[in-house]
Batch of 3 targets.
Target 1
Amino acid sequence: MSSSNTEPTQLGGLSTATQVQPLMPENTIVTVGNKTMEPIQSGMCLMDKLADSPDFMTKVQFTFSKPLQQLHIQPVNFAPEQAESEQEVLHRIALFSSGKTYEIALAHSDRCWSHVFGYKYGDKAKYEGGLIRLASCMVLQDEHDKVLLTKRSQNLRIFPGAWVLPGGHIDLGESLEECVIREILEETGVQIEMQKQEDDQGPSILTYKGREVEVSPYFAYESSIPQRVNNQYVLNVQPVGHLIINFRVKLHLPSEEIPV
């Protein structure tokens, strides 16, 4: 699913003429804290952008808006600064009124390359390699909590032949649930159905073989690796950054009834 949803988001309680567009219609963006209109670049450390700059892991609130194609991360009980402009206030309202909000753990390695790069080069650090990318990873369970793993091809450059959880990048215009459904179908053949509410307001109902499927994000991991030039790592260039959102997907059937 790669079609872009760029319809303006109407803000409840405000003038019907008030409309907010995605900041970057050709990208799904990540923002942090008080900066709801400043997309995080690849190689910037998300943890360093949080208020207290936690060392390794912290609990955060994150909101994903499909209409705005934006994931926003902020500390739990976060209060925005009063110095926000009118445009920033309107964008924040649109973001939270059109998005789904969760509380999950956010972590990165104690040797996060994005953190090392920012710490080493400080204000001289240049970020010119695009935006941090969003990806998904699914713990697919049967009714007895058995977990399905998939084996990567031997021809892949990264982790060839490894047993891994299914997952992949979140496509432009997708909701988190749509990404989960697509990736599970592509990598396992399991086809989860999505039924939207009649008024399109409440949460969608996900089912597999007529039984409801539980899907919930529980953990996000900030991953960064140095760029490679001539098959060598280059440490003075911004790292490649990903934010990997981990989901628990519970199928209420025994594994024998889940053909893969």
Target 2
Amino acid sequence: MGRKPTPAPVRFWSKVDKNGPNGCWVWIAGKTPAGYGDFRHDPKKNSSVAHRYSWEQIKGPIPKGLQLDHRVCRNKACVNPDHMVVCTGVENWLQPDGCAGINKAKTHCPKGHPYSGDNLFVYGSGPRKGKRLCLTCNYECYERRVASGAHAARVRRWKEKNGKSKNVSVSGGERPPATPVHVSPSPIGGS
């Protein structure tokens, strides 16, 4: 007979320092790569993030489809449920100190061009949906590719991949010359 396992709540609270800064209850055991507390409450299941376990022990279940946001302290290692808010993923994602929130607040591209008017393109679908693109920088990049010959090589590879003619000249970004059309002399009123 082996030793009786320590109950999950006892193991959990032994890994929490309730004297953290700003009233945080800091998780002092293992953390995920993102910095959240990592806790295995059931040995037969995968681990879960510690702040969710804390919330569920004190405040009850988290509604399906919602998540917790450390909106009060912004400390990912904090497991104090009073420092968390239940919210949607989009609300959490758009918080001012998150990647999306930081990018949303930007008014100019890294080179100083404005993200507005005719200089702004916003992707409408696909994996880049909502991403903003500075058209000035995009055009400058295109010009560098054309000048270096990289654009011609890229077009040639695309045509080969998609079964298009390999004989079309695209050097320097120029259009291929038009195929000459031979017109026979008109028999009406001709010479």
Target 3
Amino acid sequence: MDELVEAIRRNPEDGARRLVAQCRDRLYAVAWRLCGNAADAEDLVYRTILRGVERIDSYRGESSFFVWLDSILVNFYRMSVRPKGIRVLMPVEEVPEEEADAPSAADMLARGEDASVVRAAVAALPPVFREVTVLRYFEDMSVTSIAAALNIPEGSVKSRLSRAKLRLRRILAGTFCEKKASNSMPDEKSRSEKP
């Protein structure tokens, strides 16, 4: 990546082409998982690449170049989902006890559940939890890298991941229970046929 950074510094236009060729797909995957639609993901990637090239001199190499680009992308994402107007800060809610029988995303995937159910559950998370979940479980970033990308303490990353898992467990438990109930309910034809 040092070669790419130097290429961008030497010749921003050619460096931008190389940046797109080397990083676009990875950035798009993160953006799509955060915002859930192709148009917004493309916009986030375009803005991230443009900002990365414009601000290449601010990259100091304290973290990997990918982490630096991810932090730019996540900041643009945050700005896009931030409510307009006055924001009222709410107190952090209490973290509820784990529900033992609620399946995890990994359990559902291991049982062959459709990955789209898990993606939909992640998309239903509030942005602050979706960010850490996507970076950790879809992009396989370490807690340290996520903290650097989001500019938050590692403890906050761990806390958000824990709370995200609890919420996912509840969402997926609801989906699992609905699916189980619909599979166990007799259809109209079998109800009308009495022995």
